[in-house]
Amino acid sequence: MSKKDGKDRVFARALSDVKAFEFNDTVANVFQDMISRSVPGYALLLHMIGLYADFFIRPGSRIFDLGCSLGEASLVIADRASDIDCEIIAVDSSAAMISKCEQLPATPKKIEWRCEDIRQTEISNASMVVLNLTLQFLPPEERLALLQKISLGLNPGGIVVLSEKVVFDDPTENERMTQLYLGFKKAMGYSDLEISQKRNALENVLIPDSEAQHLKRLDEAGFDEIYQCFRSFNFISYLAIKK
Ligand code: GEK
Questions:
Q1: Among 12, 131, 149, 212, which one is least packed by beta carbons within 10 Å?
Q2: CA 63, 99, 122 angle in degrees (round to 5)?
Q3: What is the pLDDT of residues 4-24, one digit of tens each?
Q4: pTM of the predicted model as reported, rounded to 2 decimal places
Q5: Distance 215 CA to ligand 1 centre (A)
Q6: For position 66, which CATH number holds?
Q7: How many domains is the chain partitioned into structurally?
Q8: Ligand 1 pocket, 23 CB below 6 A?
Q9: What is the DSSP code (8-state) at residue 236?
Q10: How far apart are CA 153 and CA 172, in angstroms?
Q11: Is residue 13 domain-resident?
Q12: Residue 90, domain member (yes or no)
């Protein structure tokens, strides 16, 4: 099975019944391969998070990595902030993901792995909050409340990093970006069967917003400066700063 080599073959065989996507053991075991072959620019997004850490983390503050999966962003931040006295709270509701984080050989002391729903996470004294491809998994009607909570928990000058898959209001643009994204997945070695079964599994689980919805929500949540710092086909990442 895929567990041995860490290669994502979760949807490689024809399934008689494609179940709703879950972040379970099977997915956690191959997640690194899955996300790097499914998100164009994933490695760059992690580099950018490291760069933001250099600019925005303050001594004595907290950093939250919400929906941390295997903790990649937290590890990058811990590395960049090795000389700064700060706490990194890495949260995921998937027990499978957190258990793998806990088994990492050398977790820096400043990282706390937490198995928790991010809607329950108390945010305070924060200089940086990372939502790297996580908000899209929350019910749409709960997204504003989460961003408001983050905005209230950030110290002045603090940031949220919001990376998401998006849809486009213009049908031609939407179709064009979707097709280019499918081309990317094929180039990364996924078959038509894998692509279509995963798309079915993610239906109603990953619900993307449009860029206009994101910008409106970030503004309503109280962010003062909002920059779209990354885009690759239908993936974007915002840096939003609280004054
Ligand atoms: C990375 N940020 O590698 N509470 C806690 N965790 C949640 C919730 C919730 N309500 N909903 C979803 N998750 C990571 C990648 S993956 C993105 C993030 C993807 C978690 C879920 O268990 C999963 O681990 C993560 O959010 C989304 O930088 O798979 O496309």
A1: 212
A2: 35
A3: 689 999 888 888 888 888 999
A4: 0.96
A5: 21
A6: 3.40.50.150
A7: 1
A8: yes
A9: E
A10: 39
A11: no
A12: yes
